[in-house]
Design a protein that fits this description.
Number of strands: 0
Radius of gyration: 23 Å
Largest sheet: none
Distance between the termini: 39 Å
Number of helices: 18
Keywords: Membrane, Transmembrane, Transmembrane helix
Number of domains: 1
GO molecular function, one term: xenobiotic transmembrane transporter activity
Subcellular location: Membrane
GO cellular component, one term: membrane
Membrane topology: Multi-pass membrane protein
Structural class: mainly alpha
Length: about 500
């Protein structure tokens, strides 16, 4: 298929013009997007000037998306981190329990529901690019129903967290305290089920700043109420986790109020629809592919925390590793912000029938994210001897953390590329393929090599982490190769077919 510089000759746009029930003019993002395609297709311009112009347009589009998205993820992560810090100042045992509960159990729910929510990102992003605005609200509601249904089995895991942690060999004292912490996070599961579809719904329309402002206001409330609950009232670990659940529900409620009141969402949110309760099985299939892809990534480092609990000195291993994982988690939020921006940019461009712009967006977002990751790694290495004191006291923990920091720096640099490539995969709808790659690289290569290095060669946590870095590197190289070889014209055709398929699912429902 040969690409034409004239967007109106493209089948995706013809489809959107024929089918669209909205007369809304394209947004500023859509305008800049078509401008980017024109610049990249203009062979009259010298190639250097063409790419300079295109880079400037793309950077403006990218930063408008990435900056608020990074802020949202950083603030939401900082709420979770502040809860661990409040717990850590109750004692080292409480810190180990909160970290095990948070990174050993809670990340299970986060990974599963965020992964399922990324199906909304593919569908909403491509529908918005094709100007099928009416479909976005139905996708949002359908996703929320599906995620709510999947939340109930997760509650069972939370309720039985203590026997599960004991079953995999965690110490009785740490497992008991961790389960208390986890029980207070049960309301948070249902907040996740509503929050992630809302977040993807807004991001696909390049509406990111309101979520950032809502999260910023909530974190202030969270810190004050956490301090009162943990220290003044003396509710301890349970109080800390209950406040975290409350804070997430504040964010969800405020975002939903914004959607139903904002003029920016008047064409994409047209009220509750009965068709959201139908076609659920098709949505479940796409959601499961998305969930498996993201869960395999999120749980990968969760395994590292769980295995560290099996070491000879589990409390020191868990404390040192938890500090590094907390820093990694915070910096990973920057990468997830770029992941979201990459997904929105690629899905919008593919939906709008702009293959050159989609390919160019992939290059720019990867370069920007990689540079930011290198800067983060340099800062962490320079401060490696003092980082641990933010979370918990003790010179032994500080020395253990400093010893692990070189591995943390390598992980941060890899995180500058790998999540962005995953975002590209979500934008294109490649979730099922990436899930297979993740199984092979992470669970067939990374974890077994890590366990051999850690236990057989007595390298401890450093050995396990080194093996897992190898798995991440392998996965990153495969995704780079696949992305480099992508036929973006074919991806545009696939997006057109996907929109038609989902429209056919919806049409018979409207006749009932």
């Amino acid at each position: 298929m040969e690409h034409s510089g004239n967007e109106h000759n493209h089948p995706t746009l013809q489809y959107s013009m024929q089918q669209s029930s909205s007369d809304t003019p394209p947004s500023a993002a859509t305008h800049h997007s078509s401008e980017l395609e024109k610049v990249l297709s203009n062979t009259d311009l010298p190639w250097l000037e063409r790419y300079k112009k295109a880079t400037w347009i793309e950077l403006k589009l990218l930063l408008r998306l990435a900056a608020p998205a990074i802020m949202v993820y950083l603030i939401n992560n900082s709420m979770s981190m502040s809860t661990r810090i409040f717990s850590g100042h109750l004692g080292n045992l409480e810190f180990a329990a909160a970290c095990l509960g948070n990174q050993g159990i809670q990340l299970f729910a986060y990974g599963l529901l965020l992964g399922m929510g990324s199906a909304v990102e593919t569908l909403c992003g491509q529908a918005y690019g094709a100007q099928r605005y009416d479909m976005l609200g139905v996708y949002l509601q359908r996703a929320t129903v599906v995620l709510m249904l999947f939340s109930f089995p997760i509650v069972v895991v939370y309720v039985f967290s203590r026997p599960l942690l004991l079953l995999i060999g965690e110490s009785k004292q740490v497992a008991t305290l961790a389960s208390v912490f986890v029980h207070g996070l049960i309301p948070q599961i249902f907040a996740y089920a509503v929050n992630f579809p809302i977040q993807k719904f807004l991001q696909s329309q390049s509406i990111v700043a309101p979520s950032a402002l809502i999260s910023l206001a909530t974190v202030g409330v969270h810190l004050v109420v956490s301090w009162i609950a943990v220290y003044r009232i003396g509710l301890g670990l349970l109080g800390a986790s209950l406040v975290l659940s409350l804070s997430w529900w504040i964010i969800v409620t405020a975002q939903f109020v914004y959607i139903i009141r904002s003029q920016k969402c008047k064409d994409t949110w047209t009220g509750f629809k009965w068709e959201a309760l139908t076609g659920l099985w098709e949505f479940v299939k796409l959601s499961i592919a998305s969930a498996v892809m993201l869960c395999l990534e999120t749980w990968y480092f969760q395994v590292l925390v769980l295995v560290a609990g099996l070491m000879e000195n589990p409390e020191l291993s868990l404390d040192a590793l938890s500090v590094c994982m907390s820093v990694n988690g915070l910096m990973f939020m920057v990468s997830i912000g770029f992941n979201a921006a990459a997904s929105v940019r690629v899905s919008n461009e593919i939906g709008a029938g702009n293959p050159k712009s989609a390919a160019f967006s992939v290059v720019i977002v990867n370069l920007v994210s990689f540079v930011v990751a290198v800067i983060e790694a340099a800062i962490i290495l320079s401060q490696r001897h003092v980082i641990s004191y933010i979370f918990t006291g003790g010179e032994r923990v500080a020395n253990a953390v400093a010893d692990l920091c070189p591995l943390l720096a390598v992980t941060l640099i890899l995180n500058g590329v790998q999540p962005v490539l995953s975002g590209v995969a979500v934008g294109c709808g490649w979730q099922a393929f990436v899930a297979y790659v993740n199984i092979g690289c992470y669970y067939v290569v990374g974890i077994p090599i890590g366990c051999v290095l850690g236990f057989k060669f007595n390298l401890g946590v450093k050995g396990i982490w080194s093996g897992m870095i190898g798995g991440t590197m392998m996965q990153t190289l495969i995704l780079l190769w696949v992305t480099f070889r992508t036929d973006w014209n074919k991806e545009v055709e696939n997006a057109t077919k996907r929109l038609k398929m989902w429209e056919e699912i919806k049409k018979p429902l409207l006749k009932n």
